[in-house]
Amino acid sequence: MIILLLLSGCTKAASKEPLFEFDSNGDYSGFSDIPTDYTAEQAEKDGCYVSLDSKTISGEKQWKDFIRDASNEKEASIRLVSIVDNSTYYLDIFYLDGFYRMFDSSSVDLKDHKYKYLLTVEGTMPNANKSGKVNILTDDKELSYYDVMWSFLSSDSHYSEAISPFKLIN
Length: 170
Hints:
Blueprint: H1 2-5, H2 40-45, E1 49-52, E2 55-58, H3 60-71, E3 76-84, E4 87-96, E5 99-104, E6 117-123, E7 132-138, H4 145-153, H5 157-162, E8 166-168
Parallel strand pairs: 1-3
Antiparallel strand pairs: 1-2, 3-4, 4-5, 6-7, 7-8
């Protein structure tokens, strides 16, 4: 979860936009064009929103542009690049045909899952000193910060199974 919270990306307007492509098995193949020696500097040049060891390097404008375009029902894409402890992770998010799609380079599930909403949920967990905020993809517009966070923290698997499915962005 910590890695997902640190994610960052490149937008469609960038010179290196994510490609909405699939292989013959129906798995997302849009990460295949990323060089193995891709650096934070290259990602920044490509117009990405980049984080390095949990510190944002660049890309706040690209994220806002992605949110604006998707909110206006315009096709949009962004590549989130997170470099943590010398390991690089990618998250490609698309808004196409009225749905959000997200693909995580560290996931074994690279199938095309569609979500109606990209929500920013905020709140404070019981006994927490600070409030928090996360971005999620979901079909449930009423999903709360508590629901999302408790699904990770609870030892009761029935709780996470009882709430609507969602994907954590950051």
